[in-house]
Design goal:
The complex is a heterodimer of chains A (253) and B (308). Chain A is α/β, with parallel strands linked by helices and 253 residues long. Chain A has 10 helices and 10 strands. In chain A, the strands form 2 sheets. In chain A, strands 6-7-8-3-9-10 form a 6-stranded mixed sheet, sandwiched between helices. Chain B has 14 helices and 4 strands. In chain B, helix 2 packs antiparallel against helix 10. The chains are: A alpha/beta (253), B mainly alpha (308). The structure holds adenosine-5'-diphosphate and magnesium ion (MG).
Chain lengths: 253, 308
């Protein structure tokens, strides 16, 4: 069974159909990419699936269970995690704390125990501090473990988003343009990182503009244009599709 | 280690302070500083750490004070039972008011708490049969285990211990999973949602907790002063508390203490300008918002190269 199933999903903002009757399935363990020109509806699609927006119509299923319209924190409990194209970092916290927040659901969040420095809770927190540092090293941020988030460069913050999402130990991870705004060297590092995450068994759904990266690491690709599905298939199929070449690859190349 | 150092400094100061307090008048000022510091600490959890606002916190303080006054004198309750009832009642009221707001998104919290505070103050003034109206009412001394707390010198130790515990507890809380989630939703609501933080529930929890805190302090203060008037619940007191948070520093535990100490001392210093305190507090609040929005302690900490 597919891990994620999206059926006839639509979202209208006033008169604008940002996503229009889009259907696709994501099998577990793969890298699934969503591409399309700016404004094609990729971010909106992510926002619909992760519960930030409520669909106008259509179905979303995770493990066969309908999840459309559920709150983001409920979907997090079901194993979804994501990053944001326009950074959503807690600038009032350290880099490490940002990652620790990612592990929220795995912790004892009791207010009284927290207030009284409950030993078991403290121990779990100390272990998490180490885990967070490891995750930061995993995404290449070992130099920033004790930095304040607001003192970090843009490229590092993009990775911090990934580390925070990984701290949640998700089953399915949505990455919205993790390499946007990065230089070619940083982009190829993100490329390697995404592969590493996928090899670790996490299903990855990726939005990315860098065609080399997408073609390189995706098992399947969904192409959106003006909110509609243009085509879907393996990298090879998509690359050969005349509509795609006309609408997207042709322009970009 | 940093947090332990701050706590140690505070403990030493509280321990040594009586050596330099010349008379009951100064003890009284020190006690009022400690009372304000604890209430401001609770309010700062809400304002500074979680990024929400309450403009009616004095109302919660007032409910605690009057619950103690009324239940002990008119119904013969044990002071601890009265205090607990006041705090639980306050918590329920806070939850009742906040629930619909946090579900909608927080913008209206300022208006709702402002209104609530004003309503509480009016009720306390008008229900003269129970509250004594604008003249206020007397409160019996706090007796515990056959021992009665009397005089500033004994009360000093109660409030000093209370302050030390509160600073310790709040520091712990903000460094715990609960506190991190609160700070995270302040930093980015959507980011905290997608990692599983139930934002509405957390805002609600800290609002209720902060109100609970204020109510307990209201009860203790009523016993200490031995008299309550509706002024404890009025809008000016709420603004005083918010000003203390802003001056000391948002999201700074020690900032709360510094803000409370400075602004409790201020009216004493301004005694000759009686009646102008409101103007002074308003101006200070404005000036800090414009020129030192982070407040004293975080600004100084940043200047001298270490975090709070
Ligand atoms: N919150 C919103 N309100 C109104 N229109 C929106 C909103 N979010 C996205 N849109 C519109 O939906 C379309 C798709 O946007 P988006 O999903 O961000 O595209 P992409 O991520 O593919 O660049 C755009 O026309 C955009 O202006
Ligand atoms: Mg986008």
């Amino acid at each position: 069974m597919a891990l994620l199933e999206v059926r006839e999903l639509s979202k209208a903002f006033g008169g604008v159909m940002a996503v229009q009757e889009v259907s696709f399935e994501v099998e577990p363990g793969i890298v699934y990419s969503v591409i399309g020109p700016n404004g094609a509806g990729k971010t909106t699609l992510f926002n619909l699936i992760t519960g930030i927006y409520t669909p106008s119509s259509g179905e979303i299923r995770l493990d066969g269970q309908p999840i459309a319209g559920q709150a983001p924190h409920r979907l997090a409990q079901k194993g979804m995690a994501r990053t944001f194209q326009n950074l959503q970092i807690c600038m009032n916290m350290t880099a490490r704390e940002n990652v620790m927040v990612g592990a929220h659901l795995g912790l004892d969040r009791n207010l009284l125990k927290g207030m009284l420095r409950w030993p078991a809770l403290r121990r779990a927190d100390m272990a998490l501090r180490e885990k967070a540092a490891e995750l930061m090293a995993y995404v290449g941020l070992e130099a920033f473990v004790d930095s304040r988030a607001d003192a970090m460069p843009y490229g590092a913050l993009k990775r911090l988003e990934v580390a925070r999402a990984l701290a949640a130990q998700p089953r399915i991870l949505f990455l919205d343009e993790p390499a946007a705004g990065l230089n070619p060297k940083e982009t190829s590092e993100i490329d390697v990182l995404v592969k590493k995450i996928a090899d670790g068994g996490v299903t990855v759904v990726l939005v990315e503009h860098d065609m080399k990266m997408v073609m390189n690491i995706s098992d399947r690709i969904l192409v959106l244009d003006y909110g509609k599905k243009l085509t879907e298939g393996t990298a090879r199929e998509v690359r050969r599709n005349p509509d795609v070449i006309a609408a997207y690859l042709g322009k970009a190349a | 280690m940093k947090r332990q150092r701050g706590l140690l400094v505070l403990a030493v100061v509280l321990l040594l302070l009586p050596l330099v307090l010349p008379n009951a008048y100064y003890y009284d000022i020190a006690i009022r500083m400690a009372i304000n510091a604890v209430v401001v600490l609770g309010l700062n959890l809400l304002i500074g750490f979680a990024g929400q606002i309450s403009l009616g916190h004095a109302g919660f303080f007032g409910i605690g004070a009057y619950a103690t006054a009324i239940l002990t004198t008119q119904f013969g309750w044990h002071p601890l039972a009265a205090m607990a009832a006041g705090a639980c009642g306050t918590a329920m009221l806070a939850a009742l008011v906040a629930k619909p707001i946090f579900r909608l998104r927080g913008h209206y919290l300022a208006m709702a708490t402002l209104g609530l505070g004003i309503i509480i103050a009016i009720v306390l003034k008008n229900e003269a049969a129970y509250t004594g109206g604008p003249d206020g009412m007397a409160v019996p001394a706090l007796g515990l285990f056959g021992f009665e707390l009397n005089g500033e010198k004994q009360w000093y130790w109660v409030f000093a211990a209370n302050l030390l515990f509160s600073v310790w507890a709040c520091t712990n809380l903000m460094d715990s999973p609960f506190g991190r989630a609160l700070r995270a939703l302040h930093g980015s609501e959507v980011a905290s949602q997608v990692v599983g933080v139930d934002v509405a529930r957390y805002k609600m929890a800290i609002f209720v907790f902060s109100a609970f805190f204020a109510s307990i302090m209201g009860s203790l203060t009523a016993h200490y002063i031995g008299f309550v008037t509706p002024n404890v619940a009025d809008f000016f007191h709420s603004i005083e508390l918010v000003t203390m948070v802003v001056v000391g520093g948002m999201a700074s535990v020690f900032g709360s203490v510094v803000g409370a100490v400075l602004l409790t001392a201020l009216p004493q210093a301004l005694a000759t300008f009686e009646g102008w305190e409101t103007v002074a507090f308003g101006s200070i609040l404005m000036l800090f918002m414009i020129f030192l929005p982070r407040g004293l302690v975080p600004t100084l900490a940043a200047k001298f190269g270490r975090g709070d």
